[in-house]
Structure formats: C-alpha cells, structure tokens
Amino acid sequence: MYEKTYPNKRFKHTAEFLQKHISTDSEILDLGVENPFTPIMKNLGYQVENTSGEDLDIDTKAIENSSAKVITAFEIFEHLLSPFTVLQSIKADKIVASIPLRLWFSPAYRSKTDMWDRHYHEFEDWQFDWLLEKAGWKIIAREKWTNPIKKLGIRPILRWFTPRYYIVYAERIKL
User: Fold this and answer.
1) Is 128 exposed, middle or buried (0-12, 13-18, 19+ CB in 10 A)?
2) Quick one: how far is CA 88 from the chain centroid?
3) What digits encode the pLDDT tens for the residues 41-78?
4) Structural contact between residues 169 and 16, judged by C-beta atoms closer than 8 angstroms
5) Domain residue extents for the chain
6) Which residues, at least 6 apart from 19, have a Cβ–Cβ distance to it below 8 Å?
7) For the chain, what is the total number of helices (H) and then of strands (E)?
8) How many alpha carbons lie under 13 Å from residue 125 in its C-beta half-sphere?
9) Integer Rg of the chain from CA
10) Contact between 149 and 156 (Cβ < 8 Å)
C-alpha cells in the first residue's frame, strides 16, 4: 500500500484529522495565504481557496463573502488580536482549526525579523474550546500531539511528552 509522506509530523496529523472529518467534495476556505499545507490538501483531493493576506482582525470580507462549506484555520488564530470576531464572521457550517498550545516551559513565539510572525495568543486547550463555543461553535472532535525536536536540553526533553498542537473539528450551532 502506498504510504503518503509529509514534511513533518504536524502536517501528517493535520491531514489525517482533516480526512477523518471532511469529505473531499467539500469546498474549503483556508484562512491565511497559500502555505506549505495548501498543496497537501489539494493533493488529497480538496478544493481549496485561501484568503489573500488581508489583516483578518480588520477585514473579514473574504470570510463573509465566501461560499465555502468548510473553513480551515491551521495555526492562524494565535496571530490574531481578535480571533472571536473572525470566528463569528464565518458563514460556513464546519471548521477545522489547529493551534500551537501554550507551553509552560517556553515563552510565546516572537520572530525577531518578521513583525507579523508572532503569537499574540498561545492557548491552553480549554481556552480555545471556550473561544469556539462562545463564538457559536460545537466541538465534535479534538486531538493533541507532541512535537519533539532533536536537540539536547530540558525543553527538548519536555517536548517529547508535552502536547504542542491541538486540532478541533466543530460545527456551527443552529439557533
């Protein structure tokens, strides 16, 4: 049997989770610009369109005007000042979203060279669940996984058994 290969563990888990919950005949709006995971989704058979780099904290028109039935948001909510506003603006009935979890032994990520590549939020799983629920979503499935790195030290050892990524599949609550 053909085994798909992925550049990293995060992509492998994300692809498996997406395939488990979303059929390939669903149109997807992926929040954020085209990224290394976009071609993976397309190769799996998904019809994917990305937002075009607008600041989603200020401009949610691409989300509001999309006819996609599914929204994906892979490691984007931690970069937003107001993920609640973005979650509320979604018209689709389904969302698959992942975030890097807050690690008690490591500070929030902050690029020294790219002012946009910074984490304003690093959530604990319960905080992200609460955010989704408050914005009108019901979580159907969730998973976590670790992200070990091949370095020496206390933090690298802790990464072997401390979950780093969290992914959820949720559906819009019908009122």
Assistant:
1) buried
2) 16
3) 999 999 999 999 999 999 999 999 999 999 999 999 98
4) no
5) 9-172
6) 44
7) 6, 6
8) 13
9) 16
10) yes
